[in-house]
Fold this sequence. Notes:
The chain is an alpha/beta fold. It has helices spanning about 5-15, 20-25, 30-45, 60-85, 100-105, 110-115, 195-205, 220-230, 240-245, 275-295, and strands spanning about 50, 55-60, 90-95, 120-125, 140-145, 150-160, 160-165, 185-190, 215, 235, 250, 265-270. Pfam families: HTH_1 (PF00126), LysR_substrate (PF03466).
Amino acid sequence: MPPLNSLKCFESAARHGSFNKAAKELSVTPSAISHQIKGLESFLGLELFRRTKRKVVLTEAGESYLKPIKSIFEQLENATSELKSKQKSGSLRLAVAPAFLTRWLMPRMERFQQRYPDIEIEISSSTGLIDFSANDIDMAVYFGAGDWEDVEAHYLRPARLAPVCNPRLIKPEQPINKPEDMRFYPLLHVTKRKDEWHDWLQQHDLDPKLFRRGLMFSSGSLTAGAAAQGLGISLTDPELIMPEIEAGTLKVLFNQHLITNRSFYLVYEKRRSVTSAMSAFKEWIIEEMAGNQHS
């Protein structure tokens, strides 16, 4: 049997057509890749690559050797992934955005635990995309257009943003009875989503230039918090501010939602084995989201 390390270097270099790219992938130097492949060629007694100035090309022998070697590594990867999945099938590590975690998920987690008391769940907050290959996270909830690479994305529901404010903001002499009445009050914006107010107003045949631009914040959670403090009107998902609505510190002004291409998705790494805990959570969260849409 040739050394496993040499086979790994051969498979990576053949896939990339480059010793440099293989070195980067395997976190070694290009000369180490070259040394391993020379050792493999010596062991086999034939050349696997033709070296040119700019790239390396598989010989006919290299081509025929690559196919079974690639298949063996895929089988090895799948067997390892399956074994790891079986070992932790009763546990789930989940990553979600802080606002979604505290506002939507946490108030509903008791229902999940009642239905699946044997599933151990660990939840962490995350504001960016997850590198599933570099950590133990099983699943995550993303917000966006659903076009992320290397993940399976399951649609949950669209973003539903409506104008909200603290009732105390509204002056008796300037009531808000129709959307154009909001021009007397500052509109709170999310820095990376400046288009949202513009789009909402245009959807209602209103000229955004006639409305006052208020403070800008780094997240929707902060704009909702500012609105609750009476600093202006924010575009917020009503489901994420139910405690404030019930307490009377926020009020939905118009039940007309912004039509957007951004939605909530449940995601996990492509090609990984789905555990029973992952299947259970996927089924539960899709059901919860659907229930909220009809309520």
